[in-house]
Design brief:
The chain is of the alpha+beta class. It has one domain. Helix content is 35%, strand content 17%. The strands form five sheets. The protein has a seven-stranded antiparallel beta sheet with strand order 3-20-19-15-14-11-10. The protein has a seven-stranded antiparallel beta sheet with strand order 9-6-5-13-12-4-21, with helices on one face. Strands 16-17-18 form a three-stranded mixed beta sheet. Strand 19 and strand 20 form a beta hairpin. Helix 7 packs antiparallel against helix 11 and helix 15 crosses helix 21.
Amino acid sequence: MILFSWRSKAPILFLCGTLGMNAPTWAVAPVEGREAMVVSAHHLASEAGLQVMRQGGNAIDGAVATGFALAVTLPRAGNLGGGGFMIIRTPQREPVALDFREVAPIAATANMFLDEAGNTVTQRSRQGYLANGVPGTVAGLEHAWRNFGSGDVSWHDVLEPARRLAAEGFEISPALAQHLQSHAGRLSQNAESRRIFLRNGEFYEAGERFRQPDLAATIARLQQSGAADFYTGETANLIARDQAAGGGVITLEDLAAYRPVEREVIRGNYRGYEFLTMPPPSSGGIALVQMLGMLEKYDLTQLGFQSADYVHVVTEAMRRAFRDRALHLGDPDFHYVPQTRLMADDYIARLMDDFDPDQASVSDELIEPPVFFDESFETTHFAAVDSAGNVAASTYTLNGNYGNSVTVAGAGFLLNNEMDDFTAKVGVKNMFGLIQSAANAVEPGKRPLSSMTPTLVLKDGEPFLVTGAPGGPTIITTVLHVMLNVIDHELPLTLAVTAPRFHHQWQPDRISHEPFFTSPETIEILRDRGHNFALRRIYAHESNRVARYFGSAQSIMVEPETGVLLGVSDPRRPTGAARGY
């Protein structure tokens, strides 16, 4: 296959197998636009954002409209009942990292997921009502619109595409029909979820229209009363009533107390590009600064895309960044995070002092292994860019598929199971097999650590690349791969997003990877250097484990020479789409 660099248009030769078995199918042209671009994991949500921007809204207005539409069209991860992060950049003011992560309720305690004998009760933290953190999405999206939107599109109009999709319905895709049926066991445990998403056992089929009148009514109340309805109004009462009936602990006091937080963005530099990303309670920003800092002294282009030397050095950078993530990161409002020190140039330089170009490091020998924590793979990313230089990049989540599978009675939306991100018991794995530490113990008002890493890359001070992804800990390395593919390997955006990925998170000490990420000969060279490998798998059903791809990197590039906006929705989630004009 002959490819061309986005920068020089010089031909670059790649083998189809190097880019993955599906590269010829996936390598379609990006969507182009001059004025506006939206990318998300559902084409109707992208269209909702673009519609609002056509009405005069800026990128932030468009992103907010997209976020609400995803709550209708992508129930596995799109949400009103979850939380997330957003990187916001406008030409008029300093960039902001908006934190609307869920928080632990006032009544939450460090032992709430233990039984009388001190053993963990995983059902409470995963699917029961105690799994719910206080949602932040509605407050966060309203905050973004109110403080960074254009002022030319009303709150009512920003939410109208989502309300219409819920009221009038949309055609169920084969992927959604299959996904709902595959999660029927969990969804059927809640009467409202069973009624809405499973039609009381008469499963939806592809091509049918899916209407959600309760959700439409909730969005209509939000249109009239703003986020106040969700936190102090009728919707708040529905949440509190449902919590009380189901044994949850979220109260009207919890809802009324919730506030999103504007945090200072993390700024990093790599080969002349500046990037803006999330600070704690995201772990992704610091890890990204460290990995790129370690890699900058190596000529990755010369090493060759997915060569043994390339995979080796990138893996070792991942290994060391994830070690520091495990040791030092948490909610900065509750746990001291030595952020400045972790990102200092001299410190990052020393992280690779013991790097051996011919031999893999042994994770256990780097330092005494601590315990660490993370969140779900069922997250989603969306972004919007306009020709005026406004950018909104957001990653938000319910945590698990369909959150805790509980739909608020009368309100039509699912709540998160974010409390599983906290430590149920030190040394005991959470739902994703991750062992956790006391630094992440449950405390009222605390936000669990996250890997969500919405990121904006600037070239000469102007937006150049916007990216992010779902995928738990692989979020961080997915963002890394997209950046390296664009900056070092100069891949066109479509191939930068679709190229197969690999991941190392220090513990367990192995490289997990997508199918066909490199040649068998390269893997053997890496094995000889001491690396262990694991094909990425779905672990929910050990008897039926299948290959799994990493995340869904929704990305936008602004061509420096022309200003053309290029949007690429990762085909790993086939309902996604870029929309622009």
